[in-house]
Amino acid sequence: MFVYRRMVRFEEVDAAGLVFFARFVGYAHEAMEQLFAPVEGGYAGLILARRVGLPAVRVEADHPAPVRYGDTLRIETTVARLGTRSATLRYRMFRASDEVLAAEIRHTVVTTDLEKLVSCAMPADVRAVLESHVEEAAAVSTGRAGHAGGG
User: Mind telling me which residue stretches traverse the membrane in this protein (predicted)?
Assistant: First the structure.
């Protein structure tokens, strides 16, 4: 599991004083960018220099509790499924003050050649980062810890 913390900014809340629901997808993307910090050049290097992207093909979200301006979120990122060209990341966002689950997002990405805009094999360093955060249940279901196969 990878943990990322961030404080909710003033411009991220709506007229009701709560985080606008679509912002949680942005928070998830921030966590994914931080997850790939170990890759040479980080996430930006992957996109800009190597021209390998991880665009979303599916996003699901649940919002069981509100989040307000000034709250700090603790975002736990895990890999729920890892294929040869795609992965599903799970982000569980907790209010740091009381550890209440505020949002859960499942985000499926496909490794993409950004020049040709077609899916491509997942680079070894990207796979290594993802494998190091595979959920225990996903690892057990394949019979191989850290590798979940599939496409």
Answer: none
Q: Is the torsion defined by CA of 21, 22, 27, 31 positive or negative?
A: positive
Whole-model pTM: value is 0.88
Q: What is the DSSP string of 89-136?
A: EEEEEEETTT--EEEEEEEEEE-EETTTTEE-PPPHHHHHHHHTTB-H
Q: Give dist(CA 36, CA 117) in Å, integer.
A: 21
Paired with 103 in beta bridges are 93
The 3-class secondary structure across 6-61, one letter per residue, is EECCHHHECCCCEECCCHHHHHHHHHHHHHCCCCCCHHHHHHHHCCEECCEEEEEE
- Fold assignment, 2-142: Thiol Ester Dehydrase; Chain A (3.10.129)
Q: How many CB atoms lie within 10 A of CB 56?
A: 14
From the list 67, 75, 87, 70, the residue with the least C-alpha distance to 22 is 67
pLDDT in tens, 104-140: 999 999 999 999 999 999 999 999 999 999 998 765 4
Q: Where are the domains of the chain?
A: 2-142
Q: What angle do CA 34, 61, 108 make, to 5 degrees?
A: 55
